[in-house]
Amino acid sequence: MEDIERRGIPRIFCLGDLAGKGPNSAQAVDTIRERCEMVIKGNWDHFLAETMGEEKFAWYQEQLGPKRLEYLKNLPLYTEFYMSGKLIRLCHASPNDLFHRVYLHTETEERMKLFRGTKSLDREADVVGYGDIHGAHIDNFNNKTLFNVGSVGNPLEIPQASYAILEGNYGSMEENPLSISLIRVPYDVELAVSHAEMTDMPHKREYILELRTAKYRGRRKKEKGYSHK
């Protein structure tokens, strides 16, 4: 947040997975509600709000409480707007499917599904930004741009917080310069580890190892990129 303020960025969008995995889910949700203009639902948000009675979610659900869970339940799946003449869609995994997961190595046909029209606007997007896989990147193909913002709290490629900046004329359908940049913000990983250590959160060892190594816990079982679930 300090880096965003220092750069004078006027609006902040969150692309999902507000809660779960880490020790401070309630604080994260409250901060995002206060500071973000738009918040998108992630798969963790869906599971926490919709799946009751499962042990792996119960600890986080108790911490969040019913009002925050209701907030997560009602989050939208995507947002879309024009910027410098380009139609931009932002989502967690895919605008039309919360569980359609794509990586850099995913076939082009599957990646193009992220650009399909939505219920609110039946036309292909020019630019799609998403979260989900915790691996930041920017790619151009088929006259489209696809970018992933990475993760602030659980990065899985570089152990630094990651976010993306879009610069252009917000809300304008007139073509003008547009840029997308990925930002890495160093933070005190061991402080985050100590916060986890003070709790009885589930899968604490695995979470701490991810923070320190930026490697997804599943990769030690299956070394095939980001098989994040």
TrEMBL record:
Pfam families: Metallophos_2
GO molecular function, one term: phosphatase activity
Gene Ontology annotations for the cellular component aspect, listed alphabetically: cytoplasm
Top-rank taxon, per record: Bacteria
UniProt domain Calcineurin-like phosphoesterase: residue ranges: 2-167
Database matches in InterPro entries: Ap4A_hydrolase, Calcineurin-like_PHP_lpxH, Metallo-depent_PP-like, Pesterase_MJ0912
Protein family according to the UniProt entry: Belongs to the metallophosphoesterase superfamily. YfcE family.
Protein name: Serine/threonine protein phosphatase
